[in-house]
């Protein structure tokens, strides 16, 4: 039997013991043992494990120990489940939280297996990106995405908050952004936006699940919606109509005017002030109207603005080669643009890379050529393509130590509902999460675990794609 754990742990041993039903005593004892040093893990245990308790089992005598062991790798944990006795160790509070996420999968069917697990992630940054600019998903949907991400032991949600088609975050110093540029989306719908209060609450909700939110305002391209609200920041100052098509690369802010840079300053100030995490993402992709020199000059100034506001920045890979503040992260997404200099940049600059190769980690690409949702510009990405890859090998010449993470990206030109979202995300998010976690590669075991998760998704009312690469029966 394969364990239903996704991501698969670094190692596990299933022993021959009989196992036992999960009881409320287990859950209480676990939560009590965790609460002194890992309160969020204790809360998660009460929230997610209590529902799995078998209603017919008599109360059990259970001893649970939960100890912090700083000698484990960061975010690492071990579990030893035997009849009547559980032991959990974790490197830190986060590791304890991941242990509970793993338990939620191991115990999902109400029985306690007799086993040992030892686990830790390969990459410190394990993310999912959600584009709420093209199609707006509101706080309730975003919370469900956070839950899903955390259940696959991802620790970052990157929200793409602005694009040509819409502006999705309240900026008090620039009220016209949400007044004029939020009430539409690519589906011809009503759009919407997050208030700063929503944003704050979402971040707290995420942090309770050890997930950090990285907000993205995309600059200087992908800014048509901002220019509709404030024409003076555009290259020609002309008034613009809202745009709900899906072309990319046509817009840019004015590169040098004071009005345009005052705008950028206001935006970065607001993001820096209201973001709990260390990083904000400032875009930098597909500025197709600029020369390379114009672009690099712009990105260097943008990096300095982030630094001035005390925040670290993430940029899309195009910014590689610009002189950026130390600690900057670059998000690699495609081999279809010039990448010769990327290896050099990794060696010569204090920047690190997040791997989001579109051919593997773009959850908006079609599963099959005739799949109704998704795009095809990068590749056909079925579950096996999303599972079978190595982040370091995907990044041209970048040394392993410069690759700090993996992120799965969901762009929203085609999804129109939460069901469409989960259809694109499941089962590929668990596949990319396995890569991010650095699970030992074993596709048959992964596919058989996925089939189990498929039954749970059905039970939870989550729509997913029944890839032919998995035996779902
Ligand atoms: C490219 S990936 C984009 C997005 C699109 C996406 C669609 C990237 C940095 N830019 O603007 O939504 O392709 O797959």
TrEMBL record:
Residues 4-120 form the Beta-hexosaminidase bacterial type N-terminal domain. Its EC number is 3.2.1.52. It comes from the Bacteria. It catalyses: Hydrolysis of terminal non-reducing N-acetyl-D-hexosamine residues in N-acetyl-beta-D-hexosaminides. GO terms for biological process: carbohydrate metabolic process; glycosaminoglycan metabolic process. It is an enzyme of class 3 (hydrolase). Keywords: Glycosidase, Hydrolase. One of its GO terms (cellular component) is membrane. Residues 123-438 form the Glycoside hydrolase family 20 catalytic domain. This is beta-N-acetylhexosaminidase. It comes from Sanguibacter biliveldensis.
């Amino acid at each position: 039997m394969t364990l239903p754990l996704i991501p698969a742990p670094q190692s596990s041993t299933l022993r021959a013991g009989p196992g036992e039903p999960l009881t409320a005593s287990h859950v209480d004892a676990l939560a009590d043992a965790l609460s002194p040093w890992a309160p969020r893990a204790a809360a998660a245990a009460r929230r997610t494990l209590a529902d799995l308790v078998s209603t017919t089992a008599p109360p059990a005598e259970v001893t649970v120990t939960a100890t912090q062991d700083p000698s484990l790798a960061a975010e690492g944990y071990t579990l030893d489940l035997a009849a009547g006795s559980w032991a959990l160790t974790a490197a830190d509070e986060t590791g304890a939280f991941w242990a509970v996420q793993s338990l939620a999968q191991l115990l999902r069917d109400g029985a306690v297996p007799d086993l040992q697990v030892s686990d830790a992630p390969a990459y410190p940054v394990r993310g999912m990106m959600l584009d709420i600019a093209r199609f707006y998903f509101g706080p309730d949907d975003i919370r469900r995405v956070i839950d899903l991400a955390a259940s696959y032991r991802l620790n970052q949600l990157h929200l793409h908050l602005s694009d040509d088609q819409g502006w999705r975050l309240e900026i008090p110093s620039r009220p016209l952004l949400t007044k004029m540029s939020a009430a539409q989306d690519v589906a011809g719908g009503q759009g919407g936006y997050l208030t700063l209060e929503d944003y704050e609450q979402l971040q707290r909700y995420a942090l309770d699940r050890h997930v950090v939110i990285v907000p993205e305002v995309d600059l200087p391209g992908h800014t048509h919606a901002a220019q509709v609200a404030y024409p003076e920041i555009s290259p020609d100052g002309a008034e613009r109509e809202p745009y709900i098509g899906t072309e990319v690369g046509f817009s840019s802010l004015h590169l040098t005017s004071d009005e345009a840079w005052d705008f950028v300053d206001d935006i970065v100030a607001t993001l820096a002030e209201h973001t709990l995490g260390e990083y904000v993402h400032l875009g930098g992709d597909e500025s197709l109207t600029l020369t390379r020199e114009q672009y690099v000059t712009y990105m260097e100034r943008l990096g300095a603005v982030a630094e001035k506001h005390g925040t670290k920045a993430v940029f899309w890979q195009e910014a590689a080669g610009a002189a950026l503040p130390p600690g900057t992260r670059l998000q690699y997404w495609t081999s279809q643009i010039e990448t010769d200099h990327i290896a050099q940049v990794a060696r010569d600059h204090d920047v690190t890379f997040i791997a989001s190769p579109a051919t593997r980690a773009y959850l908006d690409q079609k599963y099959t050529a005739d799949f109704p949702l998704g795009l095809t510009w990068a590749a056909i990405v079925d579950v096996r393509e999303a599972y079978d890859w190595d982040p370091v090998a995907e990044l041209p010449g970048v040394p392993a130590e410069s690759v700090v993470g993996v992120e799965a990206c969901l762009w929203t030109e085609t999804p129109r509902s939460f069901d469409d979202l989960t259809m694109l995300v499941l089962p590929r998010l668990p596949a990319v999460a396995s890569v991010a976690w650095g699970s030992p590669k074993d596709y048959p075991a992964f596919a058989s675990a996925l089939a189990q998760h498929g039954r749970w998704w059905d039970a939870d009312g989550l729509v997913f794609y029944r890839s032919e690469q998995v035996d779902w029966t």
